[in-house]
Design goal:
about 800 residues, mainly beta, 7-stranded mixed sheet, 1 helix
Length: about 800
């Protein structure tokens, strides 16, 4: 809690009565006054505030300065303090709205203050900064997506295509280097063109989490902003990257305020949904840990004190991810050469350029955006604003200009507005450009649109469904007629999970056409969904339709399938697939057929990883991953959060992919697959990996075996329950249970145990037999403990 001071005005005061007594003596005594110290149990607005020693000076109660700070009370600054016995006291009457009631029988004091007398309590967002990024391993990974496809066309032509999409990566504490490529027609079918391999992207990425920045060398894409054009290029890029700190919030978050007369519970409802519960002391408070949302809505605070009395505060809010908090900047710098023919050429780089983007939060409701780019022939610069407008509307306006050596000068503009709420929302956007306007990487044969317009509206009717309307119009410089479309859809919920959707579309150019469709979705249990759709088109388009059923994959290992049959473009067709995802990858089998073509495809998707001196076959490495070690325990399920993804090998190691970078990931063992004698301190550990890097998660395991040792004394009676057992060379303690039996772990082939009981002790030698089978518990004894009596 952070405390903020206030300049509250004084109100009528009710002072506590006087108590008789003799003046104190000492170096700080006030001989002309009646002063004495009174120890009291203090209650503030009904809540206990601890035991304090107050000063009664001439019938006026004073409290030490430490008490005012702990009680969060704001004094009037013009009231002087009273030094007494080396401590500074201030009168309680210096706080607005003060009342005091003394209970002499139990030496307690009940103080009452107005809520405005307390410092403001701020409920701030809890950050994850305490979780330090885990040191990455030096790792090599290879992702593959291999498919073999055979197609037959009307029984006259058969093609066979073997293709592969690969990614080779190297990650270390310096960063991540990756290279992707695609191989096509690897079998050399003469009907599919030449066999070949094309390099796609080669990139080195290094993140700087402390400063929210990322450096990329090699192939990348430019950041566009609201009006730029994304360009593939090869070169260098340095940019802000706020995803490196998950708890860092860039957009302005509304502040909700309230007041509590006594310690209370505050429930926060967002659009009638409970989002969080907090505890606040007496006084005013603000909720600054507002859940991250985009759009508008209504927040409701329910303040409930210890007596069950409730106060409800309602406040509308508006925020958007396109806005930046006041004073926050977001930027990107790029320089290099434009990448041409990506996917068909391995290294086709064209004009050299440089570009930069800057976004800055001028206020919480106004964000400035500027962008500039330039090459040997084209220069472009623009300025834009995003603002929170009245009635919870987000507005946007931008203007840019260009100068090209071959096309001259040009300009472009954008105007937009949008509103999103629980019930309805709309988007309105229009943009246009002159014929001579050019951006970096834009071909002269593809000039910018003359004008584009979009208007959409959505309305939610709760149980009656969801309505959506849209209008779009596009004018180009290469055609003489605009293309206009009108679209409407209505989704009607049926039961708890089913839905029925009606769609209608009208297009005006180049040839007017209409389409009407109906779609039904029926989710079933066990991740299975049944769906059906039919669409009728005018101008000879006919009617298309299908019915389908599918079962999706889960994060854990298991099968999935899909099947579809229908009619498309006047032909009957069908398709289906079988899939199995295991800890080592995904295997796919797809088939499709129509009146003129049949196709079958067999595929495999997965990854290979070398890290920490071990090699693993894994699922595709898309995010971060962990090498998990549980020494001595094979075939134990390991996963992320509560999902089991892989199992440990014979050495007790496993690889867990799919971790979220720069976030806390809980790596968990399946306790049901651990042997009963497992000596593991914890089954869950947290790691924070860098992006696309591997980290080591090693579970602490005690070496040795466990055994149930039966112990008897000299008289042949079982050792007493509760006697302490120590294993020589080990710090862990064990205890004798009923019938003189003790379960001891960490045992080797030959061991020395020491038993302690009532100041007596004895040593015993315990030898273990051969390895136990499965979860069978090894039993030893009886072993005699000489010299100890009951």
């Amino acid at each position: 809690m952070q405390l903020a001071q206030s300049d509250s005005k004084p109100v009528a005061l009710a002072q506590a009565g006087a108590w008789e007594g003799s003046p104190e003596s000492g170096p700080d005594a006030l001989p002309q006054d009646k002063a004495r110290l009174i120890p009291l149990e203090v209650f503030i607005n009904g809540a206990r505030a601890g035991d304090w020693v107050l000063l009664d000076l001439n019938g006026v109660l004073h409290a030490p300065i430490d008490a005012f700070e702990e009680w969060r009370l704001m004094r009037k600054p013009d009231v002087p303090g009273v030094p007494y016995r080396g401590q500074l006291y201030f009168p309680l009457s210096s706080v607005p709205g003060f009342e005091a009631h003394l209970n002499a029988l139990n030496q307690s004091l009940d103080l009452k203050f107005l809520p405005s007398a307390f410092a403001t309590t701020r409920l701030v967002q809890e950050a994850q900064r305490g979780a330090q990024v885990t040191q990455p391993l030096t790792s090599v990974f290879l992702n593959y997506d291999v498919s073999y496809t055979q197609s037959n066309f009307s029984g006259q032509l058969t093609t066979r295509d073997l293709g592969a999409l690969t990614e080779l990566g190297l990650s270390s504490r310096l960063g991540v280097l990756t290279n992707t490529g695609v191989g096509h027609n690897l079998e050399g079918d003469p009907n599919l063109g030449p066999r070949g391999y094309v390099r796609l992207e080669t990139t080195f990425n290094r993140d700087f989490p402390d400063s929210n920045m990322s450096l990329r060398l090699g192939d990348s894409t430019t950041r566009t902003g609201s009006w730029g054009r994304q360009v593939y290029f090869g070169g260098v890029q340095l940019a802000k990257n706020f995803t490196l700190q998950p708890s860092f919030i860039t957009q302005p978050i509304p502040t909700l305020a309230g007041s509590a007369t006594a310690p209370s519970t505050v429930d926060l409802y967002i659009n009638d949904s409970l989002r969080q519960t907090s505890q606040v002391p007496s006084g005013p408070f603000t909720v600054d840990n507002f859940p991250l949302l985009t759009g508008s809505g209504q927040a409701r605070l329910v303040v409930r004190d210890v007596l069950g009395r409730e106060t409800v505060l309602v406040q509308d809010f508006f925020t958007h991810s396109n806005l930046l908090k006041q004073g926050l900047s977001d930027w990107s710098l790029e320089a290099g050469a434009v990448r041409d023919n990506l996917g068909t050429e391995s290294a086709d780089y064209g004009e050299r350029f440089g570009s930069g983007l800057l976004r800055y939060g001028m206020t919480n409701g106004l964000t400035l955006e500027s962008r500039a780019e330039g090459s040997g022939r084209t220069r472009n610069v623009g300025l834009g604003f995003t603002a929170a407008l009245p009635d919870q509307i987000l507005g946007q306006v931008a203007l840019s200009g260009s100068k090209d050596d071959f096309n001259g000068t040009g300009s472009a503009w954008i105007v937009g507005a949008e509103h999103v709420s629980l019930k309805h929302g709309f988007t309105a956007r229009a943009e246009g450009a002159t014929a001579d306007y050019r951006r970096i990487g834009q071909l002269d044969v593809n000039p910018s649109y003359r004008r584009q317009s979009l208007l959409s509206y959505t309305y939610s009717m709760d149980k009656l469904g969801y309505l959506g309307l849209a209008y779009a119009r596009t004018d180009t410089w290469t055609t003489s007629f605009p293309i206009t479309s009108y679209t409407g859809n209505y989704t009607l919920p049926i039961g708890q999970r089913n839905s029925l959707t009606f769609t209608a579309t009208h297009v005006t150019a180049p040839t007017p056409a209409n389409a009407i469709g109906v779609n039904v979705v029926i989710p079933l249990d066990n991740r299975t969904t049944v769906a059906g759709s039919t669409t009728t088109r005018s101008n000879g388009g006919g009617t298309d339709g299908y019915v389908s059923a599918s079962q999706t994959l889960t994060a854990e290992s298991g099968p999935a399938w899909r099947a579809l049959a229908g009619r498309r473009a006047g032909e009957n067709y069908g398709e289906g697939g079988l899939y199995y995802q295991g800890s080592h990858g995904l295997v796919t089998l797809d088939a499709s057929g129509s009146d003129i073509q049949s196709t079958g495809r067999l595929g495999a998707v997965g990854g290979l990883v070398v890290a920490d001196g071990k090699a693993f076959a894994s699922r595709r490495i898309q995010d971060s991953f962990a090498v998990v070690e549980v020494p001595g325990y094979a075939d134990v399920g390991v996963g992320y959060q509560s999902t089991v993804i892989s199992k440990t090998d014979s050495s007790g190691a496993a690889l867990v992919p799919g971790l979220l970078p720069y976030r806390q990931n809980s790596i968990r063992l399946n306790p049901n697959e651990l042997p009963i004698s497992a000596e593991i301190d914890t089954i869950e550990m947290v790691t924070v990996p860098p992006a696309r890097s591997g980290v080591l998660v090693k579970f602490p395991v005690r070496s040795g075996r466990g055994a149930l040792v039966s112990i008897v004394l000299d008289d042949g009676q079982p050792a007493p329950a509760g006697a302490q057992i120590e294993l020589e060379g080990d710090t862990k303690e064990f205890y004798v249970a009923r019938h003189g039996e003790a379960f001891v772990t960490g045992l080797q082939a030959k061991n020395t145990l020491r038993l302690k009981w009532n100041g007596q002790a004895c040593s015993m030698t315990v030898e273990l037999p051969g390895e136990a089978k499965g979860d069978e518990i090894t039993r030893v004894g009886p072993v005699t403990c000489a010299g100890v009596t009951r």
